[in-house]
Write a structure and sequence with these properties.
316 residues; alpha/beta; 7-stranded parallel sheet; 5-stranded parallel sheet; 13 helices; 36% helix
């Protein structure tokens, strides 16, 4: 059995991941970045399981292997993997739900505090010799709207309780027991947009969520509200958000994800002073990377040991 590690984060775990593979009878090859389609195709010949990160895995990549059985995604989002092609070819696609939940939830609050209290802006001006005292807003006892109450959304809710926040939730699959135990109100999306002081997104990018945040939904928000996205860039219509922020129709936004990563130098959002943008670092903690790496590895091992991965995304 042969596995290919095509993710820097997993390769960085070294001996722990390699021992898991070796003890299960795998040969392992590590492919260094950049992970282009051409480079992946050239390495796929006899690979039976591959670990991938935040880049496209196309039908051509899958067809380049004679015996590929599983594509193991580090993290949750699989929108860059051709799921249709994988299912047609009998290839499992897996992810690592919950492995990065604490890391992303921590950054969610880091971004909320940063944008509400102008932390990055203040520091930048201070470095430039200016002493500016922005008047921000507190998180304490505000209303938080969480779109997506899965593993990450639930961790965000736990942290929100420490700020005595009123929590509104929206999810297609309602965990009523969790909501009741944690005093969360399930509401429809329009209500969540209208009543929240902060809105965070923890949902996959699928056709139903593409451009979910747009001119109409942004118009529902309070002028004092903040939007925070750590899910996928495509959930937010960046042109509509830019105009909304430029016209000061909401107080601000904080993004860890964009449609184009990295953004172009002339990305309009970068010109605004009421936004904070980070470079898709939500899961990028020592603990989060380790958890995801182990889970991604175990997904491949389980596929061959038990005939099915631990966390399958598709059906074959």
């Amino acid at each position: 059995m042969k596995a290919l590690i095509a993710a820097v984060s997993v390769a960085s775990q070294g001996k722990e991941v390699m021992d898991l593979f070796y003890n299960s009878g795998f040969q392992v090859e590590i492919l260094d970045a950049p992970y282009t389609e051409k480079r992946l195709i050239n390495k796929m010949g006899d690979v039976e399981g591959v670990i991938v990160g935040e880049y496209p895995v196309t039908r051509k990549v899958m067809e380049a292997s004679k015996s590929l059985k599983v594509i193991s995604k580090v993290g949750v989002g699989v929108d860059k993997i051709d799921l249709t092609a994988a299912s047609e070819k009998g290839i499992w696609v897996t992810n690592t739900p919950g492995a990065n939940a604490d890391a992303v939830a921590d950054l969610t609050f880091g971004l909320m505090l940063s944008i509400a209290r102008y932390i990055p802006q203040t520091f930048q001006l201070l470095k430039e010799g200016e002493w500016v005292r922005y008047r921000g807003r507190q998180l304490w006892e505000k209303t938080l709207g969480i779109v997506g109450l899965g593993a990450i959304g639930k961790k965000v809710a736990f942290r929100a309780k420490g700020f005595s926040m009123r929590i509104l939730g929206y999810d297609i699959y309602k965990d009523e027991n969790f909501a009741r135990e944690n005093n969360i109100e399930f509401v429809d999306l329009d209500t969540l947009f209208k009543e929240s002081d902060f809105i965070t997104f923890h949902i996959p990018l699928i056709p139903q969520t593409d451009n979910l945040v747009n001119k109409r939904t942004l118009s529902l928000m309070k002028p004092t509200a903040y939007l925070v996205n750590l899910a996928r860039g495509g959930i937010v219509n960046s042109k509509d958000l830019y105009q909304c922020l430029k016209d000061k129709k909401i107080a601000g936004a904080a993004l860890d994800v964009l449609v184009d990563e990295p953004p172009k130098k002339d990305e309009p959002l970068l010109s605004l002073d009421n936004i904070v943008i980070t470079s898709h670092i939500g899961a990028n903690t020592v603990e989060g990377i380790r958890n995801m790496s182990i889970a991604a590895t175990e997904n491949i091992i389980s596929t061959f040991k038990d005939g099915k991965p631990l966390y399958p995304v598709n059906k074959i």
